[in-house]
Design a protein that fits this description.
alpha/beta, eight-stranded mixed sheet, 13 helices, disordered C terminus
Length: 419
């Protein structure tokens, strides 16, 4: 057998596996909500502390953040955490507080500086000072439906330690946003939905629902401070104490708005580097979930069926594109009239990201460059909290606490609590 024959048969085998995985993951994406819903057996609704870490003021900020206050749930409070005492995002959150005087809410200034991820630093104060054992963390660009908290809570059964929701992208306002949505709604979502159908869960940090008691028993911040992939690290930590991470039956809507190509690329690179560091096998297998390698394989294997290389290339491209498009239609996800061009740009970007992820550990998080994985020092230990109440007009924030300072506002601007 010649080298050409070996290459042709290897390409055929690759094509069969890649196309089979595509079909299975499309079916899994459609079936997952029903399969996961059967596992959602919890019926009680314990009080919850909702944590909203903020940094940048992005498109749709008011709507997505206000959705946390509109939950049809009996008892919850809202804590906003920021690394800056004054910022556009913090000021906007004060306005949202004022529109919801019925909901206990506060802002914490997070001064912790010990983790690889600035997001983990920002979460230290609200996680440690949460009023309730059950915590829901939500990213700023995630929109919660009114019954989202109640539905996700159904998944937090006795054997479950972490509930995450699979994100899908909406509110796409330019071509770059459609490219990012094609990545997230495409290979990423398909494989997560398929994993969920198979009973597997992973950390996806758009929302995370968990018990603080489990989090502390699993190692707390010492278990997640070494990486910018804190969601995946938390899932692993929960497994170590016998608590499973699961995906909710309810996906979560991520509003993209208008995107810049550089931001899309750096965000995908960050996630890819995290997977290379923390889930190497998954990272190595990523190309099999991408269309272009399968298209090349289809071209090389086509002569086995008596077809030309060009015919194999075109047929594989069209079948892959058609299946992903039909899936988006079935799920009600936003599509563009320029979908074929979006598909091509997506594939080129994913290949570039995967190759670049082999060569760097420096990634971009919220406009800042950080190292994806470091030997982080131990997390600060809980100490006596020093919290000062200030009026909304006050510009002073306490710096005497090594962990955090906080202030709580009422809608009128007067102090409402102290501790």
């Amino acid at each position: 057998m010649t080298f050409s024959d070996i290459l042709t048969w290897a390409a055929a085998a690759y094509w069969v596996v890649a196309m089979g995985l595509l079909v299975i993951s499309v079916v899994g994406t459609i079936l997952q909500p029903r399969i996961a819903a059967r596992r959602a057996t919890r019926r009680d609704q314990p009080p919850v502390s909702i944590v909203l870490p903020v940094k940048l003021l992005e498109d749709g900020f008011d709507r997505t953040q206000e959705s946390a206050f509109a939950q049809a749930y009996p008892s919850f409070d809202v804590t906003v955490s920021s690394a800056e005492a004054e910022s556009p995002a913090v000021r906007r959150m004060r306005e949202i507080f004022a529109r919801h005087p019925e909901r206990p809410s506060r802002v914490l200034l997070s001064t912790a500086r010990f983790a690889a991820s600035p997001k983990v630093d920002n979460l230290f104060a609200p996680f440690m000072q949460a009023q309730n054992d059950v915590i829901l963390m939500k990213d700023a660009n995630v929109l919660l439906e009114p019954d989202a908290l109640a539905q996700h809570m159904r998944q937090l059964t006795d054997e479950v330690g972490l509930v995450c929701a699979i994100p899908y992208c909406a509110g796409l306002e330019n071509f770059a946003a459609h490219v990012e949505a094609a990545i997230i709604n495409g290979p990423h979502a398909r494989m997560l939905f398929l994993a969920s159908c198979l009973g597997q869960g992973h950390g996806v940090g758009k929302i995370m629902l968990f018990r603080r008691s489990d989090f502390l028993r699993a190692g707390g911040f010492d278990a997640i401070s070494h990486t910018v992939g804190e969601d995946n690290a938390l899932a692993k930590a929960m497994r170590r104490i016998g608590r499973r991470p699961v995906f909710s039956h309810r996906p979560v809507r991520q509003k993209l708005g208008a995107r810049a190509y550089g931001d899309v690329y750096h965000r995908q690179l960050r996630w890819s580097v995290i997977r290379r560091n923390d889930e190497l096998l998954s990272f190595l297998l990523e190309p099999i979930c991408q269309a272009f390698p399968a298209v090349i394989a289809g071209s090389l294997a086509a002569p086995l069926l008596g077809a030309s290389h060009a015919a194999g290339f075109a047929a594989t491209f069209l079948v892959w594109f058609a299946l992903e498009t039909l899936l988006s239609v079935a799920k009600g996800w936003q599509l563009s009239v320029a979908a074929p061009a979006v598909f091509i740009v997506r594939e080129a970007m994913m290949i570039a990201v995967w190759v670049n992820a082999w060569m760097t550990d420096r990634v971009v998080w919220a406009k800042d460059k950080v190292h994806a994985r470091v030997a982080a020092p131990p997390a600060p230990r809980a100490r006596r909290r020093i919290t000062f109440c200030c009026s909304d007009s006050s510009s002073s924030w306490s710096t005497r606490s090594p962990i955090s300072a906080s202030r709580s506002w009422s809608p009128s601007g007067s102090a409402i609590s102290s501790s």
